[in-house]
Design goal:
Elements (H helix, E strand, L loop, with lengths): L5 E4 L4 E5 L12 H5 L4 E5 L9 H14 L5 E6 L1 H10 L5 E7 L14 H8 L6 H13 L1 H9 L10 H5 L5 E6 L7 H10 L3 E6 L6 H4 L1 H15 L49
Parallel strand pairs: 2-3, 2-4, 4-5, 5-6, 6-7
Antiparallel strand pairs: 1-3
């Protein structure tokens, strides 16, 4: 496979951005600069991957991490890029945290239309302006055959074998989904949330598969804050938003004294109470 094309922004701990087919890095045009205010942000261009399976893509991205000497990363991924993220995280790469946006998973594969313009129409709820639509479609307008190759390559490709690995993964995963996603339905989000012990699921109303277009004002800062708290493990910045700890802890993690069930509710000591990621 050709060397992975990518763009690098910002400084700090590395965050790998994995866009999906066929919408590409343009979906991250607002989030990537926001991430770059806190992180070394590496945005992979998935266009050259059209026509290759997720395992091949994951292997190529793994090689990129090695070339960049990145020993640990967080990943933000969308759509089929989320499938690549899962193969990396549950296949041995040192991934400290993940944010999956309307991600493929298991045996749930999008049946994209033959035409990329129809796929774009299916992917969003809010209307796109003409310039944004043209930017999304430009890779396929220039090379229509590449879209057909990419569409034909969509298949399970190893994701159906990850259930056991997911159940043993203790690192935090944030799942954000458009409630009206017609490409990867909400049921996939619920299955992922059930499979990954330390996951948090957020369903965003009036939003589709292109969540970062339909609801960026709602989810952009949330993603940065989640990574700051869960990946950097930084104390809460009172100038930002507050994230609550919603994920389920793996059963082997001890309960706090006030959480132990002895038949009677235990009195709560406020000094020991966990509140969000700042405890």
């Amino acid at each position: 496979m050709t060397d992975v094309a990518f763009e690098e922004l910002g400084e700090g701990e590395p965050v790998l951005v994995l866009p999906g087919f066929p919408f590409g890095a343009y979906a991250f045009r607002w989030l990537a600069p926001m991430l770059a205010t806190r992180f070394r942000t590496i945005v992979v261009d998935p266009t050259p991957f059209a026509g290759t399976g997720l395992k091949e893509q994951a292997a190529a991205v793994h090689d990129l991490l090695a070339r960049l000497s990145l020993e640990r990363v967080a990943i933000v991924a969308h759509g089929t890029g989320g499938g690549v993220a899962q193969l990396l995280a549950f296949g041995g790469a040192d991934v400290d945290a993940m944010v999956l946006l309307d991600s493929v998973a298991f045996d749930a594969w999008p049946a994209l239309p033959d035409d990329p313009a129809a796929a774009l129409d299916e992917a969003h709820v809010e209307d796109l302006d003409r310039a944004d639509a043209e930017a999304y479609l430009s890779p396929w307008s220039n090379d229509p055959e590449a879209y057909r190759r990419g569409r034909a390559a969509l298949a399970g490709d190893g994701l159906m074998d990850l259930d056991a690995a997911m159940g043993a993964w203790e690192r935090p995963v944030l799942l954000l989904w458009g409630e009206e996603d017609r490409v990867v339905p909400v049921g996939v989000a619920e299955r992922l949330n059930d499979a990954i012990p330390a996951s948090t699921l957020g369903l965003v109303p009036d939003s589709g598969h292109l969540l970062l277009d339909d609801a960026f004002a709602s989810v952009g800062e949330m993603i940065v804050e989640y990574l700051r708290a869960r990946y950097l493990r930084a104390p809460h910045d009172h100038g930002g938003i507050t994230m609550l700890q919603l994920e389920r802890r793996p059963p082997q993690i001890d309960l706090a004294p006030y959480e132990e069930d002895d038949g009677e509710p235990a009195p709560i000591d406020p000094s020991q109470q966990e509140v969000g990621p700042n405890a």
